[in-house]
Amino acid sequence: MSLILGGSPASRLRPREIPPPPAPRKAGLARRRHPRYPTGRKTGESGMDWLIWIGAAVSLVGLAGLVWCIVLVWKARRAQLPDAELRERVRRVIPLNMGALLLSVFGLILVIVGIVLG
């Protein structure tokens, strides 16, 4: 009781004000949690969802390009072409293969950036 009323006899006559408890600190990026959504946000609430979907689409286009390059080389090998002509066809497919691989990597980078920023 003396802690609330104070230590000296004069201060015991009037109660000392107890300061309110400090407000809870909020983390920099923390969101208020909703009981229905344990992650604290609704599906589609992130501003970067569109970036994730665009990145996935770009990555799938790159993957389709890689499959197309594999089919082109496979057809050239099955055609029993002479060595020089087979090398020429494979040489023409290599830039397409590298472009498709680069497109797929860019798509994955967009997905990662969307996840990190979302």
Automatic annotation (TrEMBL):
* NCBIfam families found in the cross-reference section: LPXTG_anchor (TIGR01167)
Keyword line: Membrane, Transmembrane, Transmembrane helix
What is this protein's record name? LPXTG cell wall anchor domain-containing protein
Q: Does the keyword Transmembrane helix apply?
A: yes
Q: Transmembrane ranges? A: 50-74, 94-117
Disordered: where is this region? Answer: 1-43
